[in-house]
Amino acid sequence: MTKTTVIIGGGVAGMTAASRLANLGDKVILLEREEEIGGHLRNWDRLFPNRRPGYEVLDDLRTNLSNQVDIRCNQTVASITSQPSGFHMELESGEILDCDVLLLATGFDLFDARKKEEYGYGIYNNVITSADLEMMFRSGQPITTSQGEVPSRVGFVHCVGSRDEKVGNLYCSKVCCVTGVKQAIEIKEQFPDSKIFGFYMDLRMYDRHFEEMYYEAQQKWDINFLRGRVSECAENQDQTIILKIEDTLTSRPLRMTVDLLVLLVGFVPKPETLRLANLLGIKIGEDRFLESLDEHTRFNHTIKPGIFVAGTAKGPLTISKTIADAGEAALQIHNYLKTIK
Amino acid sequence: MIIEGKKRIWQDYQKEIADDRYFYVRSCIRQNFFPGSEKAFLRIMQEELKKDVYENAAHTTCSGIGYHSDVVPFDTAMTVIARQFSLMTESGYENFVTSCITSFGLYSEVLETWKHFPDVLKKVRGYLKEATGREFELPRNVAHASDVIFRFRKEITARGIRRLVDHKTGKPLRVVEHIGCHYSKMFPSKGVGGAEYPYVLVGMIEEWGGEVVDYPERRHCCGFGFRQYLVRANRGYSLANSKKKFESMKPYKPDFILTNCPGCPMFLDRWQYTLSEMEGTTYGENGEGIPVLTYEELAGLILGYDPWDLGLQVHQVPVEPLLNKIGIPYNTSKKFLGKDGQDLGKPDAPSVLKFF
Amino acid sequence: MGRLYDLMAADVRFKEGLKACLNCGTCTAICPAAEFYNYQPRQIVDILQTKDEEKIEALLKEDMIWYCGECMSCVTRCPRGNAPGLLITVLRGLSQDLGYFTESEKGRQQLAIKRTVGEWILEYGYCMFPIEVRPEAHPEQGPIWKWEVEHIEEVMNRLGANYAKTGPGILRKVPDEDLLELKKIFDVTGGTRRFNKIEECSRQKAKEMGMELNNSLDSEYVHHIYTTNDPKHTTTE
Question: What interface predicted TM-score (ipTM) does this complex get?
Fold first, then answer.
């Protein structure tokens, strides 16, 4: 009988793993909670480091999904139990699914910026998140302040929801720094006369082309980078945002006013992932992302045979690294399928 | 500003506040500078709300001002606090209520320390036994007196005869609220509403008909700074902090400032006076300054208590303009009389601020 | 580990207050003292985590540790869970207990605080008493306060006090046996030891500085520490 793999999560990782497995001749069912597949990629306008449109990557992923892949949207897993040979699932729709292999590709949520109360997201109109800004870029409309005006001073706050004991996330979310630099350049492109500020603790420009983006942001686009973590925001009577920060490189605490403040929100583990992990007995790390069997040599295995994991359910990753990771997961699954009766 | 955003946060920070049988400990600064407020608190709790609020005459300061100006070591402060708990225990109470915010912060800090470091609790038990022979239980609940008034704000409305409304125009009064730093900055979960958008005073203002005014320096310290005020050489710091707040709130034209810490209203009141003398600046309209009230005074006004019973005559920034706005009658000729109507003369008028 | 660092590390507030600092400046951004003084609490934490004995000893002798107003705004915000405000109370305690506090202008002020608030705690059972807040030393309290102090008993009783009498009430006389318990607590817990150390070191410093220091608040040395404020604390030149 053909062995079946069920992939939970139809984002970048799930789509990639599904198409790889299908190409290798394996039977795949792709379950997606929302109405359509694509995950967060649907919401990004342009991707770092080269600022190419996100939809191009999404189209590529979709195209690779042969019609061999059984894609089922609007499906949530209600319960799963391990069987001697595989897994038995009950979906919320009432449907029953049995499979031999499970791939958890449930992805991530963005940090809810309202939790960082002192930044006033959801209270001050001109405080938005990087995700809000991406949607504004995607809409094609010009960026404006809440009063409908052209922003002349825009600030980017790094590390929102990351590296922060106060909100319970000690880890670094990796991609927010490069996102901040990208978006700073994009706003400056739209408004060449504006003053753009990046407020950072460290600039994590770790991957290929990232450091060059930082250089370009300073040299070509005059983005001002200020080393200090924003401590507090308040709203002036004219709805501009006044923020308190220390320029730690010159040891000067200061107040600054901006028209628009963008919070670079990080990754948080999805509650759904934690729920499934508990149902399945998969290990969760201290940072609440999923643990793989071995950090270096079994990065897509879990402690349970037959259960694999791919993508950002294991922690922050860029899109290109998620694709690579999911490809490796598919190969591991394909090899595993050969070993089971 | 999107008020729903704040409301969500207020929902998240609920706090247990005992509803009766309180062991009450007084505040150094409140007693000295706003004695009418402590009197009003007990009158409201005991006479209006028929609550059991007990004061053991053997109690003392928690030594918070001494501790925060660093002349009193932590071990000493903890043991003085342990003694207060001993008095509470021997009086048969478990719900502890402090009049002072710094006290509230210090009691909270000490209890948290004992929770995380039980060997320290053991050491303090030893110290107290050695010094006084006393033993103690930990309180079941610690609240600040403003938490208690907050808890019973609706009951106060029910018995109240005034609203925070301009009685001529019907418009709600614009109120700036100022929370003492030691209320929730160290332990946000111990404050109603947390540290960023505390609700304890907002709740009172809203309940009694006023409009809360937010402004950029709302969370800024008033500048007491303990040693920064106590030593004259440092007082500029204290003044500068308050000035920062006044400059920030001025464009919002508040009708008054409401506070919950004993020190803050004293500073916000006296520094307005000082700035008017030094620079000629006043922050209200017509050279009147912005009146500063304690929550006990405000609750008392809502309930119709006489302003001079509440102690409003000892505020340096005149409260009369506010009383006029609300429509609260007062008798100026009785303002500076003694308890039995004795003539005690009058204070001198300041050079700039109005004096009634 | 050096002796000074070990002494501090034994304090629970140090354990609570110093995890690891990454110098992000969140504390300094919100600190009122950093706003007005040439001061960054971040620097204090940064020095402490070097564990360098020499640097720490120098810190205990500097003005820098005396600018803080202990408002704890830093504690609310630090993303690493540090508490600069708490660390400063540890430093200030150590600076006094070791006698280093007289080396700095701001540190020397501790005598004035000990002889006012410190002694009032033991004398009145509270940190202040109206007649001690002398209008001459506190012009900022205003003319109404001056009038109050001139008629203190009448005014306080008008406002519902049980002024200087026994029994419960505002500004009551705390019974002597209770004041004695407070004194014993101070004796047993190191409070008296600190008070004595403040006096002893201040006397020595007054001698070095050639100033008169007797037991009263009106001594030359006390007046000097109470009023001297070097402009360097706030100017940037």
Answer: 0.97
